[in-house]
From TrEMBL:
Its main location: membrane. InterPro entries: MetI-like, MetI-like_sf. Coiled coil: none annotated. This is Multiple sugar transport system permease protein. Residues 1-28 are annotated as: Disordered. Belongs to the binding-protein-dependent transport system permease family. GO terms for cellular component: plasma membrane. Gene3D superfamilies: MetI-like (1.10.3720.10). It comes from Asanoa hainanensis. Residues 95-302 form the ABC transmembrane type-1 domain.
Length: 318
């Protein structure tokens, strides 16, 4: 008597995660990368040589409970200074103030800078004079600019109150109004820098693209949205990165206009106050190191979010 052995049920197919394969880099892209390192290498080495020691020294001092008034009483506390700072509510309040100033100023500068870049790019008459006039605020030293705006917003002899009929309104008497004055000074000073970077991006867009879009019936807003902005991703990323890193380290305008009063103190001002005013070198160095780490994290975030593969746009990658 023969028995039939039932066949085993087919096993469920195993799912394999597809592996991403990077497209090979062409010789042109490799040569451009090597050329970039060759050109930027000397400046990078010089920058590391000049800034390396101060950075390492700040990290070393941040590990000690060290006051300038008691040089012999230096005690090693390890990460104690960092724990003190990160558990202090005042630090997070000043982090919020710094972030607020950064977001407001950079956003306004991006919009105004793009508008000024379009004007400079499309100007048919007096183009050189127009560009020079727009770039004048950026050529003024930040301290001079801050003093000028502090004078302008003064409630006794400033021109802002007289211009808008506000009487003797004290702009520096409240937190929000004081922050507004600082943001106005920063936007006026650095918007030309943003427009200069965006103007370089506009110059790289072929006029044929805009003419083709215009022939196809695209409106002015559609040309900006679908032609200009997609081809300016690299310039926008560079402009936002530079200005965000600079705005996050704001110090001059705060020091001149408000001196950190009315809740306008930023992280850079906190490092100054701990190191210079209170002569607590250990805590001040720790704040500086934390600020440097935050700046690096911001840079990494921008590069990851706004990364633009220019070689792929040119067709260097297959």
């Amino acid at each position: 008597m023969s028995t039939t052995i039932p066949a085993a049920p087919p096993s469920a197919p195993t799912r394999t995660r597809p592996q991403r394969r990077r497209a090979p880099v062409t010789d042109r892209a490799r040569k451009e990368r090597n050329l970039g390192w060759l050109l930027a290498g000397p400046a990078f080495i010089a920058m590391v040589a000049v800034t390396g020691y101060p950075i390492l020294n700040a990290i070393w001092l941040s590990l000690f409970d060290y006051r300038l008034t008691d040089p012999a009483g230096r005690d090693f506390v390890g990460l104690g200074n960092y724990a003190t700072i990160l558990t202090d509510g005042l630090f997070w309040k000043q982090f919020g103030v710094t972030s607020l100033i950064t977001v407001v100023t950079v956003s306004a500068e991006l919009v105004l800078g793009f508008a000024l870049a379009m004007v400079m790019h499309r100007a048919l008459y007096l183009r050189t004079a127009l560009r020079t006039a727009i770039l004048v605020p950026y050529g003024i030293i930040t301290v001079v600019s801050a003093y000028a705006w502090a004078y302008g917003f003064s409630n006794t002899y400033g021109f802002v109150n007289g211009l808008f009929g506000l009487g003797d309104y004290d702009w520096f008497g409240g937190t929000w109004s004081a922050l507004f004055t600082v943001c106005v000074a920063e936007i006026w000073k650095t918007t030309p820098f943003m427009s200069l970077l965006l103007l370089a991006g506009l110059a790289q867009i072929p006029d044929d693209y805009l003419e083709a879009a215009k022939v196809d019936g695209a409106t002015a807003w559609q040309r900006v949205k679908r032609v200009i902005l997609p081809n300016m991703k690299a310039a926008i990323m560079v402009a936002l990165l530079f200005r965000t890193l600079d705005a996050f380290r704001i110090f001059d305008s705060i020091f001149i206009m408000t001196a950190g009063a009315q809740g306008t103190e930023t992280l850079s001002f906190l490092a100054y106050r701990q190191t210079i005013s209170r002569v607590m070198v250990g805590l001040g160095s720790a704040v500086s190191v934390i600020l440097a780490i935050l700046v690096v994290l911001i840079a990494v975030m921008f590069v990851r979010v706004f990364r633009t593969d220019l070689s792929q746009q040119r067709g260097d990658r297959k």
